[in-house]
Specification:
Blueprint: H1 4-9, H2 12-19, H3 38-59, E1 64-71, H4 76-84, E2 91-95, H5 100-107, H6 118-136, E3 145-154, E4 165-172, E5 181-189, H7 194-214, H8 219-225, E6 235-243, H9 252-261, E7 267-270, E8 276-277, H10 279-283, E9 287-292, H11 300-317, E10 324-331, E11 336-337, E12 340-341, H12 343-355, E13 359-363, H13 368-376, E14 383-388, H14 389-395, H15 407-415, E15 420-425, E16 427-428, E17 435-436, H16 448-456, E18 460-462, H17 475-484, H18 495-504
Length: 512
């Protein structure tokens, strides 16, 4: 049987003849010039060279063969393969079905009529991969590995000026005759010009196909390669899913955490089941209540904070409870140990919170006004933030707003715009044993009137109905007791959490 390299080399004559049938790759050499846009042109050329080179590498690999189907922004990914030359060596078919009736006739209808959706993407991959294998498996080389790439995208247009996003995916065989595996992405396109969005989408699509074939043994390297010759100001990748026989051992939660760690996105979410979910699926037109913490581990006081905040949030806004999404949020700063991520520590926190029924959000947002802006991408309904007295003190620390031209006033203008309320949980001062609430909380003298304004106008609201018996519980104390081998910590966390910590020996627990 011919090896994969034999398969490629045996096709050189065919590839060279095929290249003559397509437009040659554009010349990308730049001359010396006084043009002030030369630097920009060089950057764009580098982007193009890299994508064209990857596409050409695939085109010259005669064992990789498949279909590219794109909806919504033109055939941007296929275009790179044709520009590289020799596309007939890789592409069996490229197509776009822009009209809804044509799209439905090929892939089936969408009950929610949302064509830029995960459901539509999966139907595209199902159809195109099955058709490719059905028609070509018996006539192609036995060394062939088939694939289908698909994307469905809402890009800038005359009618769409914002919220440009899309789903991309590749289904592929990683060795001849193997059952297929999938890699799925959700992206937000951030360029301000249509052509720039199209170019970025094309580069990302080529990176995905190339990475899926050549980096599949190292998922982190594959993820890093997705942004080759792209920057986070152009593309935001806020979800990635690996599935299928070859990727059974990949932990998708860690892969999505890696997206945040690498700066490819600012936040990712996990359902109570642990499944990775795209933010719009859980936040669209929902009222949002969020609590930030370390949850290492989650304690009874954390649960009381959520319950008290929820009661007041529901009482003040009177929403349909089905339209309220409660999130627990952990910032990356609370996950980092030095410069590394403790994978097992991270998974333990997500698992414990999920077992209690909470959706978990991991973010890079240290400042609350940025968190508010993130939620406003998906909903314009009421938002509540549950926090403790120490967090309020941090919010009134002006050093955190040196990057804002308007300082702390700009921060509050952004934070409290559009139905946002802070629900503040009290605490006992460990030095004085005094109960600190919003009524006696001290801020810098020159900010006291600003603080009073926010309290009196109910932007900042004190918690009611809290359990005073729980106020002495702190996660860091519980964690210390677990590591010291004490047992009294079990009374300070939910029973379900205590059982899992013991059974799985989490957070340094050791029975010896």
């Amino acid at each position: 049987m011919r090896t994969e390299s034999d398969c490629a080399s045996g096709r050189q004559g065919t590839i060279l003849r095929t290249r003559e049938m397509h437009h040659p790759a554009p010349a990308l050499d730049f001359k010396d010039t006084d043009d002030p846009t030369e630097g920009i042109a060089m950057d764009q050329a580098q982007d193009t060279r890299s994508a064209v080179h990857k596409a050409l590498t695939l085109n010259l690999d005669a064992c990789k063969y498949g279909t590219i189907a794109e909806i919504g922004a033109g055939q941007e990914v296929a275009r790179f393969f044709f520009r590289a030359g020799g596309a007939a060596g890789t592409i069996a078919k490229s197509m776009s079905a822009y009209d809804m009736q044509f799209s439905d006739a090929i892939y089936g209808t969408e009950e929610n009529r949302r064509y830029v959706s995960l459901g539509r993407l999966m139907k595209m991959l199902d159809y195109e991969f099955s058709l490719t294998v059905e028609r070509l498996a018996e006539i192609r080389s036995k060394n062939s590995t088939f694939f289908a790439f698909a994307d469905t995208v809402a890009a800038l247009s005359y009618s769409r000026k914002s919220n440009c996003h899309g789903w991309l995916g590749v289904r592929l065989q990683l060795y001849p005759g193997a059952p297929p595996s999938d890699i799925i992405l959700h992206v937000n396109m951030l360029d301000h010009e249509t052509e720039q969005q199209q170019e970025a989408l094309g580069i990302l699509g080529v990176n995905l196909i190339y990475g899926a074939f050549y980096h599949y043994r190292d998922p982190k390297q594959l993820i890093e390669s997705l942004m080759d010759n792209l920057v986070s100001s152009r593309i935001d990748i806020d979800l990635i899913k690996f599935s299928g026989p070859y990727f059974e051992e990949i932990e998708n939660r860690l892969m999505n955490l890696y997206l945040v760690h690498m700066g490819f996105t600012q936040a990712v979410m996990f359902l109570p089941s642990g499944e990775v979910v795209q933010a719009s699926e859980v936040l669209y037109k929902k009222h949002v209540l969020v609590i930030r913490g370390s949850f290492r581990p989650v304690t009874k006081v954390n649960i009381d904070m959520i319950n008290c905040g929820s009661r007041q949030f529901l009482g003040a806004n009177k929403p349909d409870t089905k339209q309220v999404m409660t999130l627990v949020e952990i910032t990356m700063a609370q996950l980092m140990l030095g410069h590394d991520i403790d994978d097992q520590d991270f998974l333990a926190r997500v698992d414990l919170l999920g077992s209690l029924g909470y959706t978990v959000m991991i973010s890079n947002y240290l400042q609350y006004y940025k968190l508010q802006a993130y939620f406003r991408r998906y909903t314009n309904r009421n938002m509540g933030i549950v926090l403790g007295v120490p967090n309020v003190k941090d919010i009134f620390n002006e050093k955190y707003y040196d990057d804002l031209e308007g300082g702390i006033l700009e921060c509050f203008g952004k934070l409290f715009s559009g139905k946002v309320t802070l629900y503040v949980y009290p605490m006992y001062d460990r030095n004085t044993s005094e109960l600190e609430t919003i009524q006696n909380l001290r801020v810098d003298h020159h900010l006291r009137l600003l603080y009073r304004y926010l309290v009196e106008n109910h932007f900042i609201v004190g918690m009611e109905g809290f359990d005073k018996e729980l106020l002495s519980i702190f996660s860091r104390d519980v964690l210390r007791k677990i590591k010291e081998g004490r047992t009294d910590w079990k009374e300070q966390v939910p029973e379900l959490v205590a059982n899992q910590i013991v059974e799985r020996r989490l957070f340094g627990y050791d029975t010896e």
